[in-house]
Amino acid sequence: MFEIVFHPLYNELRELIEPKPVFETYETPLRTRVIWEYFRSRGYIPSDFDKQGLINNLDIDLRVKKPSPLKKKDILRIHSPYLVELVENLSDVGYGEIGNLVQATCDTLDIALLSAGGAYIAIKDVFESKCNQSFALIRPPGHHAIRDESDGLCVFNNIAVSIAKLREECNFKGKIACIDIDCHLGDGLQKIYYEDPSVLYSSIHEYIPGESGMISEVGAGDGKGFNICYPVPLEADDAYFEGYCRFLEPYLEKYKPDLIIVALGLDGHWADPIGNLSFTSKGYAFFAKWVHSMANKVSNGKVSLIFEGGYNLAVLPHLAEIFLCEFTKKTKYSPFEDYMFPYLNEQKTENSEIKKHNQNLKDELDPYWE
Ligand SMILES: [Zn+2]
Fold first, then answer.
1. Domain boundaries in the chain?
2. CA–CA separation, 266 vs 14, rounded Å?
3. Which of 42, 90, 104, 205 has its CA 20 to 30 A from that of 242?
4. By C-alpha distance, which of 270, 267, 238 is closest to 340?
């Protein structure tokens, strides 16, 4: 069973009213809405939620579940009282800057608690084997948020808040591999788990000189070796995406996580208005298949996908569909660029370049993995 966790309010709340487009307006209710409507038009989601908050499509072994918002006390396991109060106060006012590139609206607190609630249910249901895999179709994203600060369109760190709740309330003591494919480093997740060997955090992201996310950032203290950064050059194509999977594979096999969480940012696509990479549907399909087979190999098939970035409203439905099709196995996705820009599917980066890239990283990491 593949479970999508979704709430109709994601399609409505926290719309920024701005006289002119600003960066913050990229994080819009349309992001989940276009995916949801597309899934409906393809017949994956055939009916409305029932009284239990469920929609079933047994033909393709798919279920949709409506989440509840988390409570403020859940958020406080990761974030400071200062940040929670700031989000609450500015939501009451209806505007103001919560953090870098995070503007408040009157419903910011509501949507942020609901977003974290969606991530939590998606992860918990996989952990408790209520489904094999899950996809939290949520917003706003979370991977940039740290203890005291909302940042980069993220209010609360949905994944970290969910892991903390699962550890405390479900007595989950196992290991988690968090694979972040958003084109930006999930610096919030990296900071939160930097010294924690129970969460292996790994990210493929744009190389930005002077910013964090370098290969030398391998973790600290007990967490040394369990932070794996895979920076790639701007405009990196699918060869890097596939190279990343091949690179990470032996580390996952050694680490043997009980659960894989994918921070599913979809802004690495070539047509994304914020991201600077050149991945295509083919790259995402490779990743989906790879993470599915890795989960079968190391974590008893358990993988939970948590929506992060991704801002091209024409592309998002097609990329999300790739993951749905991989995990339900009964449908075939229609890739975005295959019918518009087929030439983009040609790989440009030489394999030797990827090999060199992977070797440099291996040299940095391997001393901690003996
Ligand atoms: Zn991003």
1. 2-368
2. 20
3. 42
4. 270
Cα 273 to ligand 1 centroid, rounded to whole Å: 11
pLDDT of amino acid 214: 95
The residues annotated as belonging to the active site are: 144
- Other beta carbons within 10 angstroms of residue 236's beta carbon come to 27
Q: Cα separation of 176 and 256, whole Å? A: 9
Q: What's the CA-to-centroid distance between 272 and ligand 1, angstroms? A: 10
Residue 207 pLDDT: 93
Please tell me the distance from the alpha carbon of residue 72 to that of residue 78, in angstroms, as a whole number. Answer: 11
* Pairing between β-strand 54-57 and β-strand 62-65 as defined by DSSP bridges: antiparallel
Q: DSSP letter string over 160-198?
A: HHHHHHHHHHS---S-EEEEE-SSS--HHHHHHHTT-TT
C-alpha of residue 5 to centroid of ligand 1, in Å: 21
Provide the residue type at 139 as one letter: R
Cα–ligand 1 centroid distance for 92 (angstroms): 28
Segment-wise mean pLDDT, segments of 10 residues, the chain, 370 residues:
98 87 91 98 95 95 97 98 98 96 96 98 98 98 98 98 97 97 98 98 95 96 98 94 97 98 97 94 95 98 98 96 91 73 70 94 93
What pLDDT, on the 0 to 100 scale, is given for residue 348?
76
Dist. CA 9 → ligand 1 center (Å):
22
**DSSP H helical segments within the chain, as ranges?**
30-41, 72-75, 81-93, 108-127, 158-169, 187-193, 238-255, 281-298, 316-328, 351-365
pLDDT value, residue 347: 66
Distances in Å between the Cα of 218 and the Cα atoms of 95, 172, 196, 201, 301 are 38, 25, 11, 10, 27
Cβ count within 10 A of residue 143: 31
**In 3-state terms, what secondary structure has residue 365?**
helix
Q: How far is the CA of 60 from the centre of ligand 1 (A)?
A: 30
50-67 core/surface letters (b: 16 or more CB in 10 A; e: else): eeeeebebeebbbbbbbb
| Global pTM exceeds 0.85 | yes
Q: Is it true that domain 2-368 has CATH number 3.40.800.20?
A: yes
